[in-house]
Design goal:
2 domains, 381 residues, Galactose-bd-like_sf, CEP104-like, alpha+beta, 24% strand, CEP104_N
Length: 381
């Protein structure tokens, strides 16, 4: 089953101070992403190394609201080219490109989340950014990328022909019809199913620690289903649904806290920090009460560095407002970049204010303090 693939940034052609390409290695509500140098030469380039050789199925790119590249090209390689490793002369193979919207219709108040379907094997991915779209906010002619997500399978375990043959043989002997509409939408029957928890939008909305707990609980839910422990699976399903609301709320608090730090309102920042700690403690206490929280789930994924929300040297510097708008869906025409790449028929926009900010508010407003309602689910025997 395709899943999120980890990666590290090998190199980039340059970056603005405070906006290194290494920022792309972190997915969270407060990340700033990569920005090219001011008045840079084009094209700009970023090279990523995936944690393992894999077959890429899907790429997700979260564009900046006004530092937008007109076109992004994709290249893949099994190994680094000769200018990184002199004894390995293999070059990158071009996959294709996608075009990004100039954002004029939204007044540069939305960020486009572009999904690109791919079928390519390798371990190194190169992105080439072409000339920026011109608008009144992008006074330094920069391009930027807030986040990138790679979804795929380990290459050694993604022989589709063999997998499909085995599944058809099993279905034949069990008397199952693979076209049975009753099986449609069930991830147990689809080898190409992608979990919503691997979607980039999930991480960009969720508190990182809560997101990790949700993923662990989802693994336990799948194990419970396989063992036919359906009461426990139902309990976990409800906990996951409630925790997603909790993660969004904590992510919102984190954005508001950093806005307060930028404004040097340290009393408000302290209040938000205490609010987060109290709310997190209350939620975790409820999880422990229902035996859903243990030491394994409590390992922190990482500590995000505290960064200012805006660069005071920017002529477009504005006071950041902690507004947390909803995710909007915006339809686009179905396009084909190259034989290997296809744009998704629809893309998503994250509405924000057009300002120079290192931390952009992404989270939707949610109901205050949602409760964990796992207690209403029948207890296990």
């Amino acid at each position: 089953m395709p899943h999120k693939i980890g990666f590290v940034v090998v190199s980039s052609s340059g970056h603005e101070d405070g906006f290194s390409a290494r920022e792309l290695m972190i997915h969270a509500p407060t990340v700033s992403g990569w920005r090219s140098p001011r008045f840079c030469q084009f094209p700009q380039e970023i090279v990523l190394q995936m944690v393992e050789r894999c077959r890429i199925r899907k790429l997700q790119l979260l564009a900046h609201q006004y530092m937008i590249s007109s076109k992004i090209e994709f290249y893949i390689s099994e190994s680094l080219p000769e200018y990184f490793a002199p004894y390995q002369a293999e070059r990158f193979r071009r996959l294709g490109y996608v075009s990004l919207c100039d954002n004029e219709k939204t007044g540069c108040k939305a960020r486009e989340l572009k999904s690109v379907y791919v079928d390519a094997v390798g371990q190194f991915l190169k992105l080439i950014f072409h000339q920026n779209h011109v608008n009144k906010y992008n006074i330094y002619n920069q391009v930027a990328l807030v986040a990138i997500n790679i979804i795929g399978d380990p290459a050694d375990f993604s022989d589709e022909s063999n997998t499909a043959s085995r599944e058809k043989l099993i279905d034949h002997y069990l008397g199952h019809n693979s076209e049975d509409p009753a099986l449609e939408g069930t991830y147990a029957r689809k080898s190409d199913y992608i979990s919503p928890l691997d979607d980039l939008a999930f991480d960009m909305y969720q508190d990182p620690e809560v997101a990790q707990i949700i993923r662990k609980l989802d693994e336990r839910k799948r194990e419970a289903v396989q063992k036919e422990r359906y009461d426990y699976a139902k309990k976990l399903k409800q906990a996951i649904a409630d925790l997603q609301k909790v993660g969004e709320r904590l992510g919102r608090y984190e954005v508001e806290k950093r806005c307060a730090v930028e404004k040097e309102d340290y009393d408000l920042a302290k209040e938000k920090k205490q609010q987060m700690e109290q709310y997190r403690a209350e939620v975790y206490e409820q999880l422990e009460l229902h035996s859903l929280l243990d030491a394994e789930l409590m390992r922190r994924p990482f500590d995000l560095p505290l960064q200012p929300l805006a660069r005071s040297g920017s002529p477009c510097h504005q006071k950041p407002m902690p507004s947390l708008p909803q995710l909007e869906e915006r339809g686009t025409e179905n396009q084909f970049a190259e034989p290997f790449l296809q744009e998704k028929p629809s893309s998503y926009s994250l509405t924000i204010s057009p300002q120079h900010s290192a931390v952009d508010p992404l989270l939707p407003a949610t109901d205050p303090h949602p409760k964990i309602n796992v207690g209403r689910v029948p207890a296990l025997r």
